[in-house]
Specification:
With 384 residues, this protein is an alpha+beta fold. The chain has helices spanning 7-27, 31-44, 49-61, 65-78, 82-94, 98-112, 122-144, 164-170, 303-316, 321-335, 338-350, 360-363, 368-371; strands spanning 116-117, 120-121, 186-191, 195-201, 210-215, 218-224, 231-237, 248-251, 256-261.
């Protein structure tokens, strides 16, 4: 139980545990689980700018753009950072709130100091500012079409005309972005060891306009594009089997993403098939009993033969002088019995390197330290 003195420390601990769990789930792309943990972290410490900013990022991944904008704004108020401003900008941009998005990206760029924080590099932020400027310019062109720009004085008000406020109220809102052309919607895919991810590249799809179903070796997608644009359908017969209960999808501003959990982890040769395909290990070539071992992709050199040739050349090489003598001693020692090795070690070490004998019967009884003699003009001395 926390005392009043340690209350703040306990609050930090209560926040950090779910925050660490949320971060791990976020990295694993379990965004629903991460959101639950971020909620717990924020509940434990409502004034944590870090927890709010990370929950904003999670809400963005889940397509909850209004919630992401709210969390990012709260994080900025508590702990301004380039990261939090960037999340706010992305959320407002997805909501087509161009002015707020541009302001947020500009603030992130200013706080990044040109180098940028993780997730908010200066070059990327400048691109987002340009995108927001382009959207603002397009919106201004649409609103301003038909307006006069002459420098003449304004005409006298017409008493019969309705009030300006009424005209403004009647002015239509900016047109919603048109639905994608069904003939131009395409899909692409990539895979990891455990999952296949399919992206259907259709922009501005309302979440309730997409219907997705999963089977053991199939996935079906139907998207109502609206405004008489028709229905996009994608029926995938998969290369291998998946776990339907481990599959999911989410609608994002620029695409609909399917995440399929492989029944057997490994690499698929292609996306579609009859469901009976097998998975192979990633980044490994099929084993061959006859193909020579290669080092670089595309090389056909027989490296085993090269190894054998080098070994043979080393064996045939004839050393000279001291090198030849050392090699002879190494061969003798390597092929000797245990008694011969003891004899060689004792005779060489106790004689100060002047004797090397292989006869253990002789060496074991001799004391080379007493018998050894020093070179002319020198004498042996014992130290210590």
């Amino acid at each position: 139980r926390c005392t009043e003195r340690a209350a703040s420390a306990c609050d930090l601990v209560a926040m950090q545990v779910p925050l660490d769990r949320a971060n791990a789930l976020f990295v694993d792309e379990d965004f629903d689980g991460a959101l639950a943990q971020y909620n717990a972290a924020v509940a434990a410490e409502p004034d944590s700018g870090e927890a709010l900013a990370k929950r904003a990022a999670c809400n963005l991944k889940l397509g909850r753009h209004r919630a992401a904008a709210s969390d990012a704004a709260a994080a900025v108020a508590l702990q301004p950072s380039a990261r939090a401003h960037r999340w706010a900008g992305l959320a407002h941009f997805a909501l087509q709130e161009w002015t707020a998005a541009r302001s947020a990206f500009a603030a992130a760029l200013l706080l990044s100091g040109g180098g940028g924080e993780a997730g908010g590099g200066a070059a990327e932020l400048r691109r987002w500012v340009r995108k927001a400027d382009a959207e603002l310019a397009e919106a201004a062109a649409g609103v301003g079409s038909g307006a006069t720009t002459s420098g003449a004085s304004d005409p006298a008000p017409n008493p019969a005309a309705p009030p300006a406020s009424a005209v403004a109220a009647e002015k239509p809102m900016a047109a919603a972005p048109p639905p994608p052309d069904v003939s131009k919607v395409r899909h692409e895919w990539y895979q990891t060891q455990s999952h296949v991810v399919v992206s259907v590249l259709a922009r501005n799809v309302p979440p309730d306009a997409a219907a997705v179903s999963f089977a053991d070796a199939a996935a079906d997608v139907a998207i109502e594009l609206g405004n008489d644009a028709g229905t996009y359908r994608l029926a995938l017969s998969l290369f291998a089997r998946v776990r339907p209960d481990g599959c999911s999808f989410r609608v994002m501003p620029a695409k609909l993403e399917l995440k399929l959990e492989k029944l057997v982890p490994g690499k698929w040769e292609r996306l579609e098939g009859d469901g009976t395909g097998g998975a192979t290990a990633f980044n490994t070539a099929a084993a061959s009993d006859t193909a020579p071992r290669t080092v670089y992709s595309g090389s056909r050199r027989d490296w085993d033969a090269i190894d054998r040739e080098v070994t043979r050349a080393e064996e045939e090489e004839k050393p000279e002088g001291e090198e030849a003598l050392n090699k002879l001693f190494q061969q003798i020692y390597g092929n000797a019995s245990e008694e011969t090795r003891r004899a060689m070690n004792k005779s060489f070490q106790t004689s100060g390197g002047t004797v090397l004998s292989t006869n253990w019967s002789e060496v074991k009884e001799k004391d080379y330290e007493k018998e050894r003699t020093a070179p002319d003009g020198q004498e042996w001395k014992k130290w210590g």
